[in-house]
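In response to reviewer comment 3 from the previous cycle, which asked for concrete evidence that the modeling workflow produces usable outputs, we include below a single protein chain processed end to end. The sequence was submitted unchanged, and the resulting structure tokens are shown without manual editing.
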Amino acid sequence: MENLDGNIDLKIKEISQKLKELRLSRGYTSYETFAFENELNRVQYWRIESGQNITLKTLIKVLEIHQISLGEFFKDL
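The workflow returned the following structure tokens.
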């Protein structure tokens, strides 16, 4: 079970890193600016990019901001 938890934590880190890469690819060097301009809670968005567990609702909202589907987001993960 411990190995499974470690694998899940690794996947969460991969998701958070990919979200950060999406933000950077849109020209936002600051997560704070991205959060503010897209009406996201700044602290919550920082948690997302730092690899904390997030809800599916939050993930879908961020992906909609980036105009990317769930399938497209997860295809390389």
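The chain has one domain: 2-74. We consider this sufficient to address the reviewer's concern, and the full set will be provided in the supplementary archive.
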